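Aggregate trends can hide what the representation actually does to any particular protein. The sequence in question and its structure tokens are set out directly beneath this paragraph.
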Amino acid sequence: MNEQHKKQVTVTVIIGVLFTLMFAALAAMYIFVKEFPVLIRIGYGGLMIAMAVGMIHIMKARIAEIRKGENDDLSNY
């Protein structure tokens, strides 16, 4: 892996981790704040957890693309 690929992977991981932490914090807020009705707490908390899991999946896929040499993944669309 050359230097450019290492930088791309690093940026991908940093952004992915930040978004995952944000979704996890929002999920915790929705689940543990008692002012929200139970249905909203479960619904929004579950949605944020699903988005965090999706972000991890997207991050893994992007790292695999970078390792294969696909620098511009928009060319697939």
